[in-house]
Design a protein that fits this description.
Layout: E1 10-15, H1 32-40, E2 44-49, H2 53-63, E3 69-72, H3 76-82, E4 85-92, H4 95-103, E5 107-110, H5 113-124
Parallel strand pairs: 1-2, 1-4, 2-3, 4-5
The protein binds magnesium ion.
Length: 128
């Protein structure tokens, strides 16, 4: 029997927590609603942070969001190896985020107010 696997390549978005998400310490500019929107659109979503994995999992549980991955910051390449996606993004606020993103082949999206306005619409299309 011939079976053709239908593979649709989705967008994958990794989020730093502290200084990036509004629930981080310190809080960042990225609202949890944006993460929820990404999930609703079927994007692969997770965290990549200096925080221990258990802490990251607790954050997602508290938010009521099922994360597809939780990794330490220097392990971002593992996420790329694990998931096939059309595009890989890492959202973060620091130079370390930018470094690890480009090192792992992710596009870096800066979590500051000005940049956020530009990439948030890009991420979800012009129509929002
Ligand atoms: Mg940070």
């Amino acid at each position: 029997m011939d079976t053709v696997a239908a593979v649709s390549y989705v967008t994958l978005v990794s989020f730093d927590i502290d200084g990036t998400l509004e629930c981080g310490e310190p809080p960042g500019v990225v609202p949890i609603e944006l993460v929820s929107t990404a999930k609703r659109r079927g994007y692969l979503v997770g965290s990549c942070s200096d925080r221990p994995i258990a802490y990251q999992q607790a954050v997602w549980q508290r938010l009521g969001i099922v994360a597809d991955f939780t990794v330490l910051k220097h392990r971002l390449a593992d996420v790329k190896a694990r998931f096939t996606a059309a595009a890989y993004y890492h959202v973060g606020d620091s130079d370390a985020d930018a470094f690890y993103a480009s090192d792992a082949g992710f596009r870096f999206l800066k979590a500051d107010a000005a940049a956020y306005r530009a990439w948030a619409s890009e991420l979800f299309g012009a129509s929002g």
